[in-house]
Amino acid sequence: MADAELRAEIESAPPSETQKKAAVVEQRNAEANVELSDVVVIEHCINCKAHSVHLRHDEQKYLNFAQQLSAAIAAETGKPTQTLYNEVPKAWADRDTYCQLIPCYDDKRMCYSMIPRVGAFEVSICGVIIFSKLCLQYWPHVPSVAKRVAACLKDKASGMDEGTLKSRYEAQSQSKTSLM
Asked: How far is C-alpha 121 from the chain's CA centre?
């Protein structure tokens, strides 16, 4: 089967039960205002059945980790935070961190949707990658990542510039033990 035929077959496949559940959980008003001071972006793998021939992904596991992390972040910060699942605020679209954004010229929409990468579970704030499963090759320790996110949000709110945030919190420069 040619790549084009396979792609057409995958794209025309009906959504899985996990995708239907995820759509209900993750759905937010696309035109709602996004307060950038407390936004956390979680990029996570979806449509795992489409690449299950090559990988043993469990789409529900990605969704569960995203929901657990979102709840842990809210608990750690002590205030509600806005978690965007596979979406990026338009104001942050120019950051190198965010790729595969879906163009949107509707000024009412505050965010771009993204096409998540296969195997991705990336947590970021304002282009600063707090945790990257793709780079680190393991699942996050939710309490530790939530603490790092809360600390990053606090430093961002106190006026710390993006360069300093990046050097302090960027996941690639961290060893496995320092993230736990």
From this structure: 6
More confident residue, 82 or 20: 82
The predicted model gives 44-65 an average pLDDT of: 83
Residue 62: which residues within 8 A CB-CB, separation 6 or more? Answer: 44, 45, 46, 48, 121
166 in helix, strand or coil? helix
Do the beta carbons of residue 102 and residue 43 sit within 8 Å?
A: no
**CATH fold group of domain 16-179:** Glutaredoxin (3.40.30)
Cα torsion angle, 102, 10, 28, 85, sign: negative
Residue 138 in contact with residue 102, Cβ under 8 Å? no
Distance CA 96, CA 13 (A): 32
What's 92-141 look like in SS3? HCCCCCCCCECCCCCCCCCEEEECCCCCCEEEEECCEEEEEHHHHCCCCC
pLDDT in tens, 103-160: 888 888 888 999 999 999 999 999 999 999 999 999 999 999 999 999 999 999 999 9
Query: Is the dihedral angle over the CA atoms 76, 78, 84, 88 positive or is it negative?
Result: negative
**Sheet of 82-85: strands edge to edge?**
82-85, 39-44, 121-125, 128-132
